[in-house]
Amino acid sequence: MIIFPAIDIMGGKPVRLYKGEFSTAYSVAENALETALHFQSLGAEWLHTVDLDGSLKKERVNSEVFLSIAENTNLKVEVGGGIRTLEDIDFYLGNGIERVILGSVALKNPALVKEAVHSFGGDKIVVGIDAKKGYVATEGWTESSDVYFTELAKQMEDIGIKTIIYTDISRDGTLSGPNIKQLSELDKAVSCNVVASGGITDLNDIIALKNEGLYGAICGKSIYSGTLELRDAIEVCR
C-alpha cells in the first residue's frame, strides 16, 4: 500500500482543515518545499497536494508551489483543486506533475473526464470522490448532491479511470479513524485502485487499511500532529 503524505495549500502555505471547513484552516508549516523534502527524507515516494484556494475559485491559484516541489524533489506529485479544463490538466502534466486529480468535474462534467483519459491516459487522471453521509459533495465540499459515492465511482470506472481517492468529509482532519465500511464498499464496487483519505490517526489505521487490500492512504493531520510517524507507516506498507 502506498502512503501519500499530504500538503494542502492556502495562501501559498501548508494548512489543514477540520471536516473540510475552510474557516477552520490553520498553518502546519511555513514552507511547502521544505516540508516535501522532509517527507522525502523519511522515505516517501509520492506526495498528495491540494490547491484549496483553487477549489474555491475554480481555477489554478497556487500552481507555482506544486511545480517547485516537482522540480526540486524526487517525489511523484499528484495535484488536485481548481482543475476544471483540459488546459489545466495539460499545464500540470507538462510541467512535471505525475498525476492530476479531478473532483467536482467528475460529477458535473464527466465528458471532460472522459476526454482527459483519452488525451492523457487513465494512469495520469485520478478522480477524487468526497462524500457526506455517502453522498457526493463538490466545489471544495461546499455543495452537496443526491449521487451516492459508489454510483459515481462506477461511472468513472466505465470512463477509464484507474484510481479513485475517497474522502469521508465527516472524518477529514478529525483523527477519528477512516471509514473502513465505506472504503470496503467502494473497493468491492469497482476494480479501480482505491485510496483512503480522511480520519487516519495512527499505525493501527494504516494496518487496517492495508489489510483491506487498498491501494493507498493519504495522511495529513496525523503526520503533522505526531500521532503517526510517516517513516513507520511507509515501512509497515512495504
| Spatial order of the strands forming the largest sheet | 1-4-5-6-7-10-11-12
Strand proportion, as a percent range, falls in: 25-35%
Global morphology: globular
Question: Strand-and-helix sequence, N→C?
Answer: EEEHEHHEHEHHEEEHEHEHEHH
The poorly predicted ranges are: none
What this model shows, in words?
The chain starts with a strand and ends with a helix. It has 238 residues and is an alpha/beta fold. The protein has an eight-stranded parallel beta barrel, surrounded by eight helices. It is globular. Helix content is 39%, strand content 29%. Helix 1 runs parallel beside helix 3. The longest helix is centred in the middle third of the chain and has 11 residues.
Topology (elements, then pairings):
Blueprint lengths: L1 E9 L2 E6 L2 E7 L4 H10 L4 E6 H6 L5 H10 L3 E5 L5 H8 L5 E4 L1 H5 L1 H11 L4 E8 L2 E4 L4 E6 H11 L3 E6 L11 H10 L3 E5 L5 H9 L4 E4 L1 H5 L4 H7 L2
Parallel strand pairs: 1-4, 1-12, 4-5, 5-6, 6-7, 7-10, 10-11, 11-12
Antiparallel strand pairs: 1-2, 2-3, 7-8, 8-9
